[in-house]
Amino acid sequence: MKNLGILLSGRGSNFVAIADSIAAGRIPNAHIAVVISNRADAPGVETARQRGLNALVIPSKGKPREEHDREVVAALLDNKVDLVCLAGYMRLLSPWFVRQFPGKILNIHPSLLPAFPGLEAQQQAFAYGVKVSGCTVHLVDEELDHGAIIVQKTVPVLDSDDEHTLAARILEQEHIAYTEAIRIVLEGNFEIAGRRLVKSQKSEVRIQK
Ligand code: GRF
């Protein structure tokens, strides 16, 4: 059984999608060991508690980044977390944090990276006039919205869209993409070659005559 640690700061719809996927067997052998928010008022915390999950608030306001990160990492280690999933966590992780979980931190971003990193990616894409946008689940490295890509989903931009309708359709795809990415990472049948995720060759079964 692999223990997931979810970090969030707000609504928590990606967290709920992950929890639902685990409950439905779409992410086998996984368990949400802890949900951590840096904001006490994040609706995702209340949702986690209603679902009977271990939910902690570790406030970040006014704390130096690494001091806060040390508290969060201590809580993740206490809960024996194998994979950290950032799900609308509005904090940049310190390089120290990233080094504590090498290759074991995922983030979801609402654009087709490397286009439109940073805040309000859906609005950035809409205003730029792209015809296709989407979402990306990637490994977290020391740069913002930058690590190796695990899963991407595309979403067409319709003539009838505004930034809100586009964001809503991207969010539907985020919920699907995060489940797929967690499965891939937990199954572990891949390597990262440069920036590229390459699936490992399945060993061939040879029938000897
Ligand atoms: C999502 O759009 C995610 O891609 C971005 O923050 C938003 C979080 O939404 N990183 P939610 O809290 O999971 O509903």
Short overview:
By secondary structure, the protein is of the alpha/beta class.
Distance between the termini: 39 Å
How many β-strand runs?
Answer: 9
Q: Level of helix content?
A: 25-40%
The count of helical stretches stands at 6
Order of helices and strands: EHEHEHEHEHEEHEE
Bound small molecules, deduplicated: 5-O-phosphono-beta-D-ribofuranosylamine
Strand order of the largest sheet: 3-2-1-4-5-6-7
Give a written overview of the molecule:
With 209 residues, the protein is of the alpha/beta class. The chain is 34% helix and 24% strand. The chain is built from six helices and nine strands, in the order βαβαβαβαβαββαββ. It has helices spanning 13-23, 43-50, 65-78, 95-100, 121-128, 163-187; strands spanning 2-8, 30-37, 55-57, 83-86, 105-109, 132-139, 149-156, 190-193, 196-199. The protein has a seven-stranded mixed β-sheet, sandwiched between helices. The protein has a two-stranded antiparallel sheet with strand order 8-9. α1 crosses α6 and α5 (121-128) packs across α6 (163-187). The radius of gyration is 18 Å and the shape is globular. The mean pLDDT is 96. The structure holds 5-O-phosphono-beta-D-ribofuranosylamine. 5-O-phosphono-beta-D-ribofuranosylamine binds next to α1, β5 and α6.
